[in-house]
Amino acid sequence: MVYEKVTKFYNSYKSKKCVIGYTHENRSIYAMHVGSDFGKQFIAVYAVHAREYITALLALRHIKEGVKGGGWIIPLLNPDGVAICETRDPMWKANGRGVDLNCNFDADWGTGRLNTKKRGSENCIGDYPLSECESAALVRFTLRVKPAVTLAFHSKGGEIYWEYGGAGDERGAKIIAEHTGYVPKKITGSAGGYKDWCIQKLGIPAYTIECGDDSLSHPIDKLSKIKECFGLLKFFTERYEK
Asked: Does domain 2-240 correspond to CATH entry 3.40.630.10?
């Protein structure tokens, strides 16, 4: 099980680390620091959507590969949802309460084209912005760290979303594209995501990376299927400050 793998990794991790919060089912949301404590910091978050849990394993690889500069990696934002995906419903995307975490942030909340208040596998916005333990914990942690940039690793599609409401920094998307071959893209009809909140409310560059070719099926079962993302965080941090 993915949560157990991440927990074991976290327990053995020797550098700076913390639990940023707990889920409704009392699972820990782990964060591990990589690189230097000094200078501009980043936040990278993975497994926001349950069926995209392959990105949690990508996070562990990114930690082992290291970075230039420093920042925080949150490998598994949605452990309750991943447990549902692994045991009951392989297409489950939401958290354990049936709320889609990437629709629950305070950035034009509830205005997305597919948004609904009906709980289920996907698209439910929750009762109000940051109603969920996971999204609220990530916002608190982000405000505490004050990152210069954030990255959210999702799957699949081979695309990089970098813009929201006419704002954003395409420069970082081009760096990610250089390493992965993915396509920088603007999207419409979407709101309430972590990237959206970072751009709109914090005014910082933020990127959503859809790992893996769109021909892959959810859930992606092997890390090797998104091997183009190996080394990506190190590559990005080496070039972003140049």
From this structure: yes
